[in-house]
Write a structure and sequence with these properties.
Length: 84
Amino acid sequence: MTCNVSDMKNGLCPKCGARDVRVQRGSRSPDDFRNYLSLGWWSSGARVYNYACIACGYLESYIDAADLMKVAGKWDRVAPAEPA
């Protein structure tokens, strides 16, 4: 299964269809808690990008691709649901 780039990352809100999407880029520092996902130790974490639709307030957050393996090493995997 591949992950496609979201509409939000392309500037289109999937909820209301507006094209006024803004991004708050992730910080490289754990001092900036708004954009940093803690993974244990103070210096260990992942950068987060937040995308917000100005028209309706819808928000999506994404972990920086370079930090995905850090998260995979710390968080539990969710088992896929069995088909109904």
